[in-house]
Amino acid sequence: MVSAQEIERLSNAFESKTPQEIIRWAVDQFWPEIALSSSFQTQSMPLLHMVTQIKRGMPVFFLDTGYHFWETLIFRERIASEWKINVIDLYREARWDIFVRQHTRSLPLDDPNLCCYLHKVQPMQKALKDIKAWISGIRRDQTAERARAGILEPQEGGLLKINPLLNWTRADVKRYAEEHHLPSHPLFEKGYRSVGCAPCTIPIGLDQDERAGRWAGRGKTECGLHTDMFRRRELSEVKGEFHTDVSRVE
Ligand code: SF4
Predict the structure, then answer these.
(1) 3-class secondary-structure state, position 37
(2) Could you give the number of structural domains in the chain?
(3) From CA 181, how far away is CA 125, in angstroms rounded?
(4) Please, what's the b/e burial string for 27-47 (b: 16 or more CB within 10 A of its CB; e: otherwise)?
């Protein structure tokens, strides 16, 4: 058990450490109660590569929203097989199935916050209940929200979120991928710099912000996994952020 003061001290000390040093510390502290989350896109490859080098068998959570590009699912299968990754697919809770099937096309467009909550936030909250540490690949240069993150971030229920790449830039990711000859998501070369779900991702220009193609023009930059929404565990605490009256859906 690491105290809150020690976590703060370590988080500050890790600002000058390499991602590999932070991952090794995390594995030493928390194995086997530790997992990585990954969306299996081009910029996910360095962290996945490091983790598989440091601790083979680490569970890797993949949010199977049902809205992915087929290229993402095939790429995920290929990398999982070639790198022998222990991928665990996470799905929405079954109680939402009828509602989602009735609104499959319209939900991501009409109520993306609810859609992300059902397909990403809730399933990840549930999966993380059983472990002590969660490794995430967020970087400070990606969004304003992420710029404020710490390398170690205590969460509800004793969970510790660990962000080993927080200080890396897009150039660092590119350099590591080139040095290690890492594969690229099939849509990357077609202009998809950050690949999310198909209804919410468009290709962008090389000079644009990496995440400019996610929920473009819809005033949304985050799915909720890395925001305050993730810390609120009850539906009643977040339902004000949805257009849909969820009390009539449940
Ligand atoms: S990214 Fe789009 S499709 Fe995917 S869960 Fe969020 S709103 Fe739904």
Answers:
(1) strand
(2) 1
(3) 34
(4) bebbeeebbbbbbbbbbbbbb
pLDDT at 115 over 90: yes
**What is the per-residue pLDDT across 134-186, written as a single tens digit (0 to 9) for each?**
999 999 998 888 999 999 999 988 999 999 999 999 999 999 999 999 999 99
Q: Is the CB of 224 under 6 A from ligand 1?
A: no
State the distance from the centre of ligand 1 to the C-alpha of 115, rounded, in angstroms: 5
Task: Express the helix, strand and coil content of the chain in percent, nearest 5 each.
Answer: 45, 10, 40
Catalytic residue among 115, 197, 200, 223: 223
pLDDT tens, position by position, 18-42: 999 999 999 999 999 999 999 999 9
CATH of the domain at 75: 3.40.50.620
Length of the chain: 250
Residue 250 in domain: no
Ligand 1: centre distance to CA 108 (Å): 5
* Domain encompassing residue 145: 4-240
Residue 61 pairs in a beta bridge with 37, 88
Is 172 contained in some domain?
A: yes
CA distance 249 to 107: 13
Ligand 1 pocket test: pick from 119, 195, 218 the residue with the most ligand atoms within 8 Å of its Cβ. 119
pTM of this prediction exceeds 0.70: yes
How far, in Å, from the CA of 197 to the mean position of ligand 1? Answer: 6
Element (H, E) at 116: helix 112-116
pLDDT at 1 over 70: no
176 located within any domain: yes
Q: Does the annotation mark 223 as catalytic?
A: yes
Position 4 pLDDT exceeds 80: yes
